[in-house]
Amino acid sequence: MARSDTCPACTGHVQDPSTERPPHWLLPRPFCVAHKRTALLPTGERLEAALDAASREAGFPVEGSGLSYVLNPVSIGGKWIGWVDFAASGSAVYETVFSSTTWAEFLAQHTRDGVELLYTLDALTLTGPQAVEPPATHVLASRMLWNWQFEIAVRQQLHARGIQVARSLVEAVAILGDADRVLEIARDMADINAGRVTAKELPKKIATDAQLAAASALPDPLGPEGGEECMRWLQALARRRFAHIAKAGG
Ligand SMILES: [Zn+2]
Fold it and tell me: What pTM, to 2 d.p., does this model score?
């Protein structure tokens, strides 16, 4: 196997959080192509083989960024926890630098936008030279809000099926389809409740009772309760993400 200077498995280590010096964030490194091929899904199935089989069955390539919510984390070489990102054309598997339990958590802690938002939240408790100028917080926050809500919509679907992870890629695609539909309904409901539109103005959507119930139960990150819940999630993540940085005066 050709060794890569940046692949965590080839180099034998992941990056050490304690070496981070804000605002130079530690961003995750991708595993090399050879190690990426060894990625196993939580079911023990090989990721690459599962994608090929599901695409053959569907008759079109199974892809899209939503898959990251149902297929992560993956295992590399039986030793490393990786996160597969389908956002670009194709996919990459990234190392875990800051422990994460869900894709939304991974994104918030390992992407520049997410880290800057979390750092701003954490910096509210900092003083002195470590305090930073807030970035365009609302823009960064809105992306994290939707990631948070989508993650909950996916968890709802897993829970409704009585499972913790999708048992197959075909099931994963079905879960994403249901989660997408529930989100659409939930956002329509939020728009109607906030008086932004009337029910009559929206195109009629066909939904099952289960989808309607799930949509009613989905927290709205722009509403007062959902907003607070989402903020608590972000603040807890921020504390964890920057636990390695000594607080001024703390
Ligand atoms: Zn490698």
Answer: 0.89
